[in-house]
Every structure is written in C-alpha cells, then in structure tokens.
Amino acid sequence: MDSRKFWKAGRTGFFGALLALGAALFAAASFAQEENTAREGVILTLDGPVTPASAQYLSREIEAASETGKELVIIEIDTPGGLVDSMKTIIKAILASDTPVATYVSPQGARSASAGLYIMYSAHVSAMAPSTNTGAATPIEIGGGAPQESPAAPKTPETTPQPTDESGGEETPPAEGPGEIAPLGNDEAMRAKVINDSVAYIRALAEERGRNADWAESAVREAVSVTSREALELGVIDLIANDIDDLLKQIDGETVKVSSGEKTLATKDLMLTRVKPNLVETILAFISHPNVAVILMSLGTTGIIIEMWNPGSILPGIIGLCCLILGLYSLQVLPFSWLGLALMGAGALFIVVEAYTPTLGLVGLAGMAMFAFGLFVIFPEGFRVSASVIGAVVAIAGAFLGLILVAVVGSRSHGPLIGAEAIVRREGVVDDWNGKEGHVIVEGERWRARSDKPLKKGDKIRVLEIDGLVLVVKQAKAQGLFGGLVPNEA
Residue 86 falls within a domain, yes or no? Predict the structure, then answer.
C-alpha cells in the first residue's frame, strides 16, 4: 500500500514537472518573440515628388510600425519636394508615432528639397549621406512660381528726382520711417500669408526637435540650400552616415522623444525589413513623375489630333483621352506653370491647323517649337523634364508632321479624284454599241461614248477625254496571259 502511494505521488510529481517545464518553455518563446518583434525595424523610401500616393504609403507604414512596436523606422529620402497637404500627412504620422522615425537623405548625390526639408525637421533623427544637399523650402503655388522677392520683406520706397523750386533748391521728399512696409496687393498678401504660415510651421518643428530654426526660416523665405557638411555644422541635421549600417551604429543608445515619452534607441544588430508601396501606390507615384506626366499629355494630345484628322478611327481617341486624364492627374499633384501649359496647347492647335489647312509645314513647325518650349517651362526648377524626353516627344511630333506633309504632297501629285475630269484615263466596259457610238460603264456610271473604231458589247475601253457629257474612248489592251504584249486596238 505504501508502494502504491509512492508511485502515485511520483507520477503526479512527474507530470507536474512536465507541465511546469512546458509552461516555462512557452513563456520563454513568447518573451523571445516579443523581444524579436521589438528588435525589428523597417526601411521606407521617398524617391520622387511628395504626392498623395507617397503620403498614403509612408503614413500607413509608420502607423503600422508604431502599433506593432517596431524599434525604428528609417525613411530614405531623395525628393525635389511636392504637395503641402501630402507633406503634412507624413509629418502628422511621424509626430504621432511611438516608434522613432529617422530620415536619411540617400544615396550620395540625392537631395531633400522643399517638402523634404520639413519631413527631415519633423523626424526624431535626421541624417544625410555625404555629397547630398537640402533646403530650398520656399512654397510654390500650383500653377505658378514664387516671386523673386518675398512679399513679406520690408520694401524700400523708391526715390525719384523732385522738382526744384524757383530758388533752385531741391524739395525734400517726405520722410518715411525705416523698414516701413508698403501696402500689399491681394496677390502679394496671399503670398505673404503662405510664406509666413510655412515659416511658423517649420520653426515649430525645429523647436520640437531642437534644430536650427533661424536657418530653416531662411530656407523658406530665401530658398537657401546647404550641403550635408554645412547642414551638420548649422545644426540642421543630427549626423552624417555613409550607409544604413553606419546610421544604426551612430544612433545606438541615443534618447529621443516620441509621442508617448522618451525612448532610448537600441539599434545594434537590428533586423531591418524594407517595405515597398503597394501596386496602386506604385502606379500613382509613377504617373506623378514630371517626365511621365509630359509623355502622357503628349500622347493624349496626339491621340486626339489623330482622331480629329481621321474621324471614326476610335482607338486613337480612346487612348488619347485616357492618357490625357492621367496627365491631368499628374498636373494636379505637381507644381506647374500656366505659361508652359498654354504653349503646349497652342503648339498642338497649330499642328491641328497644319493637318487641316496644309501650309507646307510652316505652321506645323511653329507649333512643334511652341510645344517643345512649353515642355521645358511647364515645371519649375527641380521638376524639369529631361532633355531626352523633350527630344523624343519633339521627334514623334515631327514624324507626325512629316506624315501630314507626305499626304499633302501625294494628294497634289495626281489628278482630280472627283468630278467629270477625274474620269479621264479610267477604264470601263461597253454596255451597248452601234457604229461609232454607244454607252459604256465607267466607275459604276453609265455614260454616252464615241470612238473612232467600232466596238462591241463587253469590250474593255479606256477614257481618252470628255466632250461635254460624251466620253471619247478607245479599246483597251486585251486581258490575258499575253495581253500586255499584243496591241489590241482596232
């Protein structure tokens, strides 16, 4: 009996020990999994203009990293700028994130201009690769460019020669206080509001992250830019890193302020995962590139011109309309100049005029030149269309214009296509004949005809000339294997 109790107690203890061991292993695995999750980071990319598509991609992934407790989010930046609303969407996601966000201007030769500078100032860690630059954050309105001088700057009143009095002394102009600001017009007042709002916004970000607010203001008001070395010396960025590994090494142990409080970065041996945009965001980002935008606009214009020139072809018109809609979307998210758009429209109109009223290419060449210049000036500096794209578009327009000229020359090289004169040299067949006169069928029409030689029904004839409403004909060469070698005239 004692032996049974012993074995029963031993069996119970054995199973209890197994249960405790299993629970310990499960807890250790869970702890390791949580630790591995916390030791992961993500790399995001901002390559190109800041658009709604890129803003959706970055804000979504930043929020996901914050919710899953990632250690770090790195945004690789190479951008000329973009839309203010899209920029603010990204910045709001960074400021609300519990996961530290580091911006890294990379690779060498990249830049972070305009909206990119604001995003850098909002990040918990801001870094740049060697041979990169940043700045030029003056806001540019869609449809126009920035004025040469800031409207918010004090204006010095112009002095003009004053009329002299009878004694020869020059009248003294009214004294004006130093730094007096002249009244602003509606456009200048609106521009000043935009610039002042942008200055206040970037200064707030600079104060939040402890970066150089005065230089940030000059980047907005005066569009100044600096290299990575100068940015580090001025306190615009936190560090210069040769690559991602160097960045992780330098920021390891740094303490940053996130939305939930201070957090110390542990980036040593951090496992990084590169997350790319989804398919829709990739497509929208692709068509928002300036080069793609002008190609779409050019294809759309060409398709519509072809449809107008050859009504009923359908396919060119449909393709042109689709390309035009996509091109207009691109213009919606890119800063463009109305002058460039007007020149492109005028150039396309001149090419249409050339197609309908041929002028031996003079109007068409002028239209092509206007279209090319419009492509060059439609986007401001930083968003310029590449010369190769402009050359390709002009070459395609030139080929289209060449086809028009060939068609015009061809239409003038033959005789009339309609009317009585067009029937000369045409062939027909005798319908009935009596002596030297009868009726023939030419081009489906029944004509009275006469000939110097007798003919019979069914003979092939050729029209020599037309005399009033009577055709002068002769018998055509016989058809057959040797018909082209043996004369068959009566």
Answer: yes
